[in-house]
Amino acid sequence: MRNGAEILKLGTLTITWWCIIFGAVWIACYLVGVALPMMLSSYDSDAARMTAETLKALTPILSVLVFIPINAMFMVLIERRALAIFTVRLGPNRVGPDGYLQTAADAVKLLFKEDITPHGADAFMFTLAPIVFFAPSIFGAMPLLAAVTNYHELFQIVNLPTGIFFILAASSVPVVGIVMGGWASNNKYSLVGGLRSAAQAISYEIPLVLSLVTICLLAGSLDVVQIAKQQSGGILNWNILGGGALRGLDAALALKFSNSAPALQELSEKSFDQVLKSSYVEPTMAALGLSAGQESMAGIIAVVAVLVLIAATFIAYGLYMTGACAEINRIPFDLPEAESELVSGYNTEYSGIKFAIFFLAEFTNLFIVASIAAVMFLGGGDCPVPAWLGTMLGGPQLASVINQALTPLIQIKLVDPPTLFAAIWVILKVYSIVFFAVLIRGTLPRFRIDQLMDFGWKRLIPLSLIVFLLVVFAREFVNVHVGS
Amino acid sequence: MEQFEMLKTWAETNVESVMFYILATISIPLAYGVILDRAIIRSGFILIGVFGSICGLFLLLQAQFLALAQLMIYAVGITLVIVIALMLTNPRMERTQLSTAAPANQLGAFMVAVGLFMTIYLSVRPENWTLSSEPLDSANVEVLGRALTTDYSLPFEFASVLLLAALIGAVMLAKAEKPPKPGEDDYEYSVVDDGPTAGDARPDKEPVASGR
Fold first, then answer.
1. Exposed (0-12), middle (13-18) or buried (19+): which is A18, by Cβ within 10 Å?
2. A88 pLDDT exceeds 80?
3. Are A199 and B83 a contacting pair at CB < 8 A?
4. Are the beta carbons of A350 and A108 closer than 8 angstroms?
């Protein structure tokens, strides 16, 4: 633990920046979505009413626009500092207090640099490419906002019945921007980078989509809010652990340990074994058409099916993370911009604000794929502690103490407790995944292009198809999220 | 209040047609751009714009699933087309070399275009369709999925078999390696400077698989 001091500094930096980012987003949303409409509601005129409604509808867009630049600055900083720790260096620590303002200075520098269009480039396409790369990542992430804020009324407008499909469709557009930038630069390195990115994105989109389809199959829905809601109630209900296959176990444990919980009144007549039996043995018997004497066989089949589901969803999570890493061109899949081979690929010729937009989009994409993972696999804004264990440990008392402390803020509608708790859990989950991606970047070397193709087509795609088939069959024997 | 109500009724009746005209004015010039632009790569990128605005039209018709499928499939699909166009042509040279087609070809192309237009017009003209003013079910993706896996499962499977055949055919075409005739340089290796021993089997210089 010789670098314990550095890790502590990283922790302080993270928490400080979180306060800056989410404080800014929270206050902006509050001003536009709540405070201004409340002030306007005192005027009784059409114009005031319309303005208030428009402001409310614009809140999600505003929150994203405030969030993206600050968040990208933080993510670049945390990435550089964390990589420095992994490689036993110090990292940026000069600008501002302990290097906190390094990336802010970088951003200012990038914005004031001269914007060069190379000779012979297709100027229109050259300018359009960063926009095509960046814009879809903003509007594609919109439905996620409804899921991560626990369906707050200001964000209900961005929810879609086909949420995850919309996110996937929007996230398939940025590759066009890379190819466009690569071609328009009039540079052979850029062109090779663009072509590589097209090949890579198309290959790795298949396992990525198949792993998410597997989860949609277990959830029975494409709506991200519904998928997040189904997983509430602790880690045993999360999609990464069987997509709801452990819900029966959760109910039985809840009965065993805290049968005084008011939510479980209807179960209190049954015993632990009866709950387990009704949630695992009976569905299996119904699915196989077994008679009353074959309960032990049904029990074995149910246990096997549950284990298969857990393994399958866990592998699906791994597949999603691998595919997502490749989609957003992160190490070990950063072949489109491999700086040691292609002098940084598709963005070789970019400078100034256009380069800044490419850079911004890359980090925003990392954040978005991490939030998709958090919503689809890790329960969205759900507390990982199971509800019954939380009750035993005094969760409700803690929540009421926090509510008491926040009462003045709740009264002016600055804080909405369900949204606040959901947001905190989502922030922790998403940045853990981001940190994991940084860890991977510090650990693994880059693939070669033929290894990349082999790995995608010969390993990941067959594996994702196998996982999909296993889930299709195994879910017949167990009660999963679908239909609940 | 009166103004507000008026605005509301106007929006309810007209917003759809206004949006339609906006999308149409975007998509028609872009569609012309696809065939008029001399640089083939640029036409490819413009085509993505055309499909994007058609995606908007589907959204106006409340066909959310179709709109998103349009975006997802064509954005990636056309990127592939562009990549292939890049590999097969030299787009920068072509801009100056393209010349107008011979008059006979122009006439033939015009006839084909008219025939195609007539066929499409006759099949989609409004008399053949029953119109309904019923609001669409909000769970229309579910209905679509159910229909595809029950009533229309056979056509669906046929379509997938067709795609599979196309895929296998493409692999076969790409993999077709002619055995080099004696005395003739193998063109795949001729890029590499082989010196006097050209044509020898050299296992360490296998052609690199293209990145697709």
1. middle
2. yes
3. yes
4. no
Whether A175 sits inside 8 A of B78 (CB atoms) is: no
| B7: chain A residues, CB-CB within 8 Å | 50
* For chain A, domain boundaries: 1-112
For B51, the token pair is 């499909």
Measuring CA to CA, which residue among B86, B91, B106 is closest to residue B39? B91
Query: What distances in angstroms separate CA A483 from CA A254, A288, A302, A475, B61, one per listed residue?
Result: 22, 19, 19, 12, 29
* Cis peptide, bond prior to residue A396, ω within 30 of zero: no
A-chain residues near B69 (CB < 8 A): 169
Q: Do B1 and A50 touch (CB under 8 A)?
A: no
Considering only residues A353 and B10, tell me which one the structure prediction assigns the higher pLDDT.
Answer: A353
Max CA distance (Å), chain A: 82
pLDDT of B43-55, one tens digit each? 888 888 888 888 8
Burial A44-57 (b: 16+ CB within 10 A, else e): eeeeebeebeebbe
The predicted pLDDT at position B194 comes to 44
A-interface mutation test, from B38, B51, B66, B68, most A Cβ less than 10 A away: B68
Could you tell me the two tokens for A249? 């176990």
Q: Which residue of A has its CA nearest to B83?
A: A195
Distance from C-alpha of A406 to C-alpha of A422, rounded to nearest angstrom: 16
Question: Which among B4, B64, B211 is the nearest to A199, CB-wise?
Answer: B211
Which residue out of A119, A142, A165 would a mutagenesis test of the B interface target, given it has the greatest number of B Cβ atoms within 10 Å? A165
Q: In chain B, what residues touch A50 (CB-CB under 8 Å)?
A: 4, 7
Distance CA A328, CA B106 (A): 46
Which residue of chain B is at minimal alpha-carbon distance from A221?
B142
Please give the Cα distance from A90 to A101 (Å, whole number): 15
Q: How confident is the model at residue A274 (pLDDT cuts 50, 70, 90)?
A: confident
State the pTM of this model: 0.84
Asked whether the beta carbons of residue A450 and residue B208 sit closer than 8 angstroms, the reply is: yes
Average pLDDT over residues A158-165: 84
